[in-house]
Predict the structure.
Amino acid sequence: MTVSWIVTGLGIIVSLLGYYLTPGAWGYGILGFGLAHIYLGILDMFRAPGRSRQ
């Protein structure tokens, strides 16, 4: 769960960086990269832990 929060937090930071660079192509790419990390971090929070699966 801690890793999910770290990934989500880094995604927020990267998304903000991309937002401030948005008029250019690099800004949109960085923004999308950050948003993907936010999405994947949140999805990972809802996933069942690997040890509990049998």
Notes: The CA atoms of residues 1 and 51 lie 13 Å apart.
